[in-house]
Structure formats: C-alpha cells, structure tokens
Specification:
The chain is α+β, with helices and mostly antiparallel strands and 287 residues long. Helices cover 26% and strands 20% of the residues. Helix 1 packs parallel to helix 6. InterPro entries: FPG_cat, FPG_N, H2TH_FPG, Ribosomal_uS13-like_H2TH, Znf_DNA_glyclase/AP_lyase, Znf_FPG/IleRS.
C-alpha cells in the first residue's frame, strides 16, 4: 500500500508533468472506484491542472478549483504515460485499468488496481474536506506543528498498542503498515507497547523516529518516476517484509507476527529485549 512518502513523491511527480495542462477527457472503466457523482467526472474536460498536493495517503489533483482526490488503497497505483493510446481503453489485464485521465498534449495517467479485493477510491469534489477520509485525518507527521509535545498529547491516555496507534489515520495521518514497522524499529520499541505507558524519553525517541524515517523515505522517493516508487520503497525498508533476514543494525533474525489480513515485522534484539512476540490474530486495535 502506498503510504505518505510514496504519495508525496507522486504529488511532486505530477506537479512536474501535469500542472499547466488541460484535461482532455476522463475515462472511467471501473465504476466502483468512482465514489462521487456531483460534480460529474465529465466536468473536468477543458479545465487545467493547477496544483497537486497530499492529505495523508490521499492524492489531491486541483483542476481549476475542482479536486480529483485519489486513495490508492492496498493495490492501486498511478502510471503516467507520455502518449496515451487513441483506441478506447478496455478493462482487464494484469493491472486492470480503473480510470484514465487524458491531458491536452496527448499524455496522461492511468489509475490501476491489481487483485480481487478492490479499494481504489476516486472522488471529484469542490473541497477536499468533502472526502470523508480527509475530513477525519489526524495531524500530518511532517507538519511543523507535529512536535514532541504534540505527540505526547496524542499518546496520553490511549490504552492502545503503539503499532495500531501509528496506523490509525484519525490519530496520525499517512503512516501505514510498512512505515509503522520501520518507525518502531528505529525507535527500538515493541509494536505491542501500550501508548500511554511511554516515558517522556520514549515519546521523544518515537517522535524522532517518525520524522526521520518519513523524511528519509520522502528524500529517497522524490524525483523518481512513478513506476520506480514501489521498488524504491521495498529497497529502503529495513525490517518490513524482511522476515527471516538479518537485522541491519544488530544481525538478529527479523521475525513476524501474522494477523487475519496483514503482518508486522520486528527485530527481537532491537525492540523486545530479545524475546519473540506471541503470534496472535488481528485485534481491533491493529486494524
């Protein structure tokens, strides 16, 4: 799933390649992906892309005041094409096309989604706050207002596991399963630690790990073509998705805890005092 660094990099990429161009037309092949109908998607034709920004994991394409907002979910992706085919797009294929945006110079971009579990969501709104997921977002961890004191206020009184707290978009925006693993490894913290049990020193260390991990990932991703971002993310991860490999910090074997529809990875030596965590089914707190 694309998280804050990849979505930020996509926003930068589209600002470089789409801003200033008019939308020629939009083809919607997967009606289920389109979550709004007023204004209609046809209203974009003839309007110009003026900016591209990010809200958490949401990509916001400003088209003369109308906002084409995209959430890529688990298996969605954006692919820019220098020249779009003139023939009508067809559904199906390895990465089924959901939405195609044609620009006035013949280029454009596709929104695709692999797999059978569909979550890609596309909204056309007059104000990004009309998108339910954006309206309830927590603070952005790369915002200047996200200070150590702000994080201390977030964890205070929350009897939740820190892994679940980091992934909750209504608490902190933009961090998902992969980067929460990376942050906790950098902070040398167990994913099952209870949030309101963190000491002041641990809160400061967690804040440093959040900001540094995300900024480093953004720096690695920014400037890369959209098609290269997935591989860049995988290459840059130290523990997530690396079960059975050696921890790059201490050399211990990276372990995994599996849940109903996801998993987490961690280093016992770096994070849990050398003790393996009990494998358990996905709890409500880790959704």
């Amino acid at each position: 799933m694309p998280e804050l660094p990849e979505v930020e990099a996509l926003a930068v990429f589209l600002r470089e390649h789409a801003v200033g161009h008019a939308v020629a037309r939009v083809d919607v092949l997967a009606i289920s992906a389109l979550k709004t109908y007023d204004p209609p998607i046809t209203a974009l034709a003839g309007l110009t892309v003026t900016d591209v920004t990010r809200h958490g994991k949401f990509l916001d394409i400003d088209v003369d005041g109308l906002h084409l907002v995209v959430h890529l979910a688990r298996a969605g992706w954006l692919r820019r094409r220098e020249e779009l085919p003139t023939r009508p797009a067809r559904p199906g294929g390895k990465n089924p096309l959901a939405v195609r945006v044609h620009l006035d110079d013949g280029s454009g971009f596709d929104l695709t989604e692999a797999g059978t579990k569909k979550g890609l969501a596309v909204y056309l709104v007059r104000d990004p706050a009309e998108v339910p997921g954006i309206a309830t977002l927590g603070p952005d961890p790369l915002d200047e207002a996200f200070t150590v004191e702000a994080l201390r206020g977030i964890v205070a009184g929350r009897r939740t596991q820190i892994k679940g707290l980091l992934r909750d978009q209504q608490i902190i925006a933009g961090i998902g399963n992969a980067y929460s693993d990376e942050v906790l490894h950098a902070a040398r913290m167990s994913p099952f630690k209870i949030a309101d049990k963190l000491t002041d020193e641990e809160v400061a260390g967690l804040h440093e790990a959040i900001v540094t991990t995300l900024r480093d990932a953004v720096a690695r991703s920014t400037g890369r073509a959209a098609q290269d971002l997935k591989s860049e993310k995988k290459t840059g991860l130290r523990v997530h998705g690396r079960t059975g490999e050696a921890c790059p910090v201490c050399g211990d074997t990276i372990r995994e805890v599996s849940f109903a529809d996801s998993s987490l990875q961690y280093c016992p030596t770096c994070q849990t005092g050398g003790k393996p965590l009990a494998d358990r089914r996905l709890s409500r707190l880790l959704k």
